[in-house]
Amino acid sequence: MNPVVSVLIAFTVLVIGFWLLVKGADYFVEGASAVARRLSIPPLVVGLTIVSMGTSLPELAVSVTAALAGSNEVAVSNVTGSNIFNLMVVCGVSTLFLPMAVDEETRRRQLPFSIFCAALMAAFGMTGAAEGAGVVGVIGHGEGLALLALFVGFLAYTVHMARKGRDDMEEDEAGEILSPIMSAVYIVGGILAIKFGGDFVVGGDMVIAGREVGYGAVAIARMLGMSETLIGLTIIAVGTSLPELVTSVVAARKGEIDMAIGNVVGSNIFNILFILGTAAAIHPVSFTMENLIDDGILIAFSVLVWIFSSTDGGKILKREGVVMLACYAGFVAYAIWRVYGV
Q: In the chain, which ranges are E strands?
């Protein structure tokens, strides 16, 4: 196929993917907000559950597919890399629009719990018989089921928090709210648009007129001569986290700042407990020294965000968001150096 046509296809699909992500996130936040207002559920709770699960669909698809194929070592890298991106880039970019006011419940319980989950992942990863170069342990079936059980407990606590929040909330201000049917349409449609938008942005290969043609960011990266390893390290990892980024930015711009931070913290907890738990329950997951280092970095970044959220009246300010973005850039530089040694 003509190279110009190939480039045009790759960029067209990429643009369509971004459009689906933006529109899907917009409808998803609007639908979730309507559910929260109609049921008198705090937006934070919606962010911790519906929004975080919906925007974690790409990570879930990648990890479960890898587990079924018996190549689920990628599950740990996918979870850890996505969580670091969520924490440092999603929160960091959101603060550029509006200072991120962190709810006291998030500061006192959700953020510390996410740090505990990351530490638990490292503890489980250092158990089991280590086989292979650089492998320090294995997250086995039992550990996977334990993570899933902890996830059920987290959901139960969130439901309890929702009931408590509903009892404590004042009557919602007057104004038009989406009907239950339209709210469901917005949420489901948003999830589907986010899922396919993420797929299109990341990209891959498709067959047109009997020829295999690349599309999306992966195809563009190949055209620019990037290695497959670097593609997976950057585009794939970031691509699966684009829904969280777009959803949180849209939530921040709409003033649903509780939903933005709730989405990030909820997604990080969901990624470790449910996604990694599901992958390990399907097939034992090897845990390498690089995974252990990355998990340590995730814990350090989480503590940093926790500190930021505990100062300045419980707000993460723009200057702190810039520091978070710089930290992520440093992490990416380190990851590239680790692969290439340059």
A: 100-101, 135-139, 204-208, 211-215, 285-288, 315-316
